[in-house]
Each structure stands twice: as structure tokens, then as C-alpha cells.
Amino acid sequence: MKRALTYLAFAILGIGIGAYSALTMAGLLPGDRRTQGPIEINNWYGDFAMGSEDASPYFRARIARHGLLALANTEAVYFTRTVDDSGQPFTEDCMYQLSGGAMPARWWSVTLYNAQNFLPDNTDSALSFDASRADMQSDNGSGWSAVISPAKPADDTGWISSKASEAFDLTLRLYVPNDGVLEDPEGMIDAPSVKRLQCSGDAS
């Protein structure tokens, strides 16, 4: 009887550890944020297995969990960022400056998602900044910037609305990446910076 109880205890322990491991790898635990990945460029994380046949069952479950319609990496690559340049998590209470240069892709965009991995529920129609808007700031899309804040800036700068997002993250998409990006992303991609400008409650 004692031996049977010991076997039962180990079986329950094994099932528990296995279930926790599977839920963690699939991104199904509460508080899990986006997809992360083995590629890290300036606090942006990506995984080129997204949308490919090489993706593991766990990774596919993670993508499905976050509702991403992942294209093949020859068509689009994805990077997610959850912290500013100082390492602090993004929050609606703060204003940020997103800035970067030319991207090695036919087209690109940066989109804001809330903590539930959805677009924030606001009517500002300003949840993304893309290559076409960057080109309006310069002749070749280099040296662009946008403000991330819950209220529209007074000047006519680029703007991503964080209204009603609370905690949020940013997703960078590069559509039809240039030759060499898949082989050497760290060397080819100059990922945008995200500088925190001010937060509500900061001393003036």
C-alpha cells in the first residue's frame, strides 16, 4: 500500500510538472506577454520559426494563443518589445519617443497591443506607425520618429495612441525582408529605440 501511494505521488508530481512545462512553453499561463524568441536586437525579440514548418508544437500553440496570423519568414518577420530603453515596462501612464532609421524590408510597421494582446479599445485611429508615415518625415524613410502617448501631441509629429492600453507592448513587422536579414538579423536590422520622455506624477 505504501509503495502504491509512493508511485501515485510521483505520477501526480510528474503530471503536474509536465502540464506546467507545456503551459509555459505554449504561453498559456496568466501574465504571459507575446512570443519573445531567441533573436534579440535592442530589446526587440523575434523568432524566425514563426509561420514556418520548423515551428514546434509548443511554439505554434503560443502563436495561436496570441492570435497572430504569422506569415512565412520570407514574407514577414516579427519582433516584440515590452520595455523602454531604460528597461522599464511600457505603461499608458508614460510618454515615449519611438525613433529609428531605414528598415531592411519592402515595408514595415510598429503596432501597439494591450496586455491582453489586443488593440486598445480607443477611437484615436493611431495604433500603428509605418513606412509610409516615416517617408513623410524624410525623403528616404531614415531619421523618423513618433510619440507614444495616451493624448495626441500638440505638434504634427507621428503618433501612436496608448489610450486605454494600461500595460502594453510593441510589435515590429518587416514585410518581405531584404536579402541577408534571415541569415544575419543582428547585422542587418537597426531596431528602433524607445525612449521614455515623461510619466504622469513626475516632478516638473
Outline the structure in words.
This protein has 204 residues and is an alpha+beta fold. It folds into two domains: 1-32; 34-199, Domain of unknown function DUF1214, C-terminal domain (Jelly Rolls, Sandwich). The chain has four helices and ten strands; from the N terminus they run αββαββββαβββαβ. The protein has helices spanning 2-25, 57-65, 131-137, 185-188, and strands spanning 39-41, 44-46, 76-81, 94-100, 105-114, 128-130, 144-149, 158-161, 168-177, 193-199. The protein has a six-stranded antiparallel β-sheet with strand order 1-2-3-9-5-6. Strand 1 (39-41) and strand 2 form a beta hairpin. The radius of gyration is 20 Å and the shape is globular. The chain starts with a helix and ends in a 5-residue tail after the last strand.
How many domains would you count in the coordinates?
2
Q: Tell me, briefly, the overall form.
A: globular
User: Considering DSSP H and I runs of 4 or more, what fraction of the residues is helical?
Assistant: 10-25%
Instruction: State the separation between the terminal residues, measured CA to CA.
Output: 71 Å
Order of strands across the main sheet: 1-2-3-9-5-6
Order of helices and strands: HEEHEEEEHEEEHE
Mean pLDDT: 81
The largest β sheet comes out as: 6 strands, antiparallel
In CATH, the architecture of the largest domain is Sandwich
CATH superfamily of the largest domain: Domain of unknown function DUF1214, C-terminal domain
SS content category = alpha+beta
Annotation field: number of helices: 4
Radius of gyration: 20 Å
CATH topology (level 3) name of the largest domain: Jelly Rolls
CATH class of the largest domain equals Mainly Beta
How many DSSP-defined strands? 10
Strand share of the residues?
Answer: 25-35%
Spans where pLDDT lies below 50 across 5 or more residues: 20-32
